[in-house]
Specification:
Layout (H helix, E strand, L loop, with lengths): L1 H11 L9 H14 L3 E6 H11 L2 H7 L2 E2 L2 H11 L7 E2 L2 E2 L5 E2 L1 H12 L1 H8 L4 E6 L26 E2 L5 E3 L3
Parallel strand pairs: 6-8
Antiparallel strand pairs: 1-6, 2-3, 3-7, 4-5
Helix pairs in contact: 2-3, 5-6, 6-7
The protein binds zinc ion.
Zinc ion binds next to loops.
Length: about 170
């Protein structure tokens, strides 16, 4: 069977493929977020939608400061970095130097660490969304190279979300 052969190939790379109904998948992902374990999930859009609905409550959005980036910043990311994002939302962090670390800085740092091709391929997945849970990522201010700490929670990291990308979720 073709699907099993594909799964066999994926598992051969050391990854796991799991199957459950969407609510159960959401339970697993939410439990992973809460546990603090770092993991990446490739989810269907429907599964990602269920998780985002449950994770990004209005209260959490208010507390984290997650907000949509401006059309100008979206355009600057496309023109200067060569990455197309849609409805990108993130929680900016203000550095002690006054610089506001925002979506542009985050995507620029992602390109520096992983390369433009990797960043673009994540944003252009057709049927799946890539969700990072508790990733170890330290935002670095591009002005003075300071490591930035999220304003809520004691951990570092950068919270974001967008339509074609599952985004990232942290334990609180
Ligand atoms: Zn700075």
């Amino acid at each position: 069977m073709k699907l099993l052969a594909e799964i066999d190939k994926v598992v051969a790379t050391g990854k796991v493929v799991a199957s459950a109904d969407d609510e159960a998948v959401a339970d697993i992902v939410i439990a992973t977020i809460t546990s603090g374990i770092s993991a990446s999930f490739y989810l269907t859009r429907a599964q990602a939608a269920v998780i985002k609905e449950r994770f990004w409550t209005p209260e959490r959005i208010r507390r984290t400061g997650l907000r949509p980036i401006s059309p100008e910043e979206t355009e600057r990311i496309r023109v200067e970095l060569g990455v197309r994002v849609a409805n990108f939302r993130c929680a900016p962090i203000t550095c002690a130097c006054g610089h506001v670390y925002d979506a542009f800085d985050f995507i620029q740092q992602g390109i520096r660490e992983h390369g433009l091709d990797v960043v673009n391929s994540v944003f252009s997945l057709k049927d799946s969304t890539f969700l990072q849970v508790n990733p170890s990522f330290t935002p670095i201010c591009p002005v003075d190279d300071q490591k930035l700490i999220r304003t809520h929670g004691a951990d570092d990291g950068f919270e974001y979300d967008c339509d074609e990308y599952g985004g990232c979720c942290y334990q609180e």
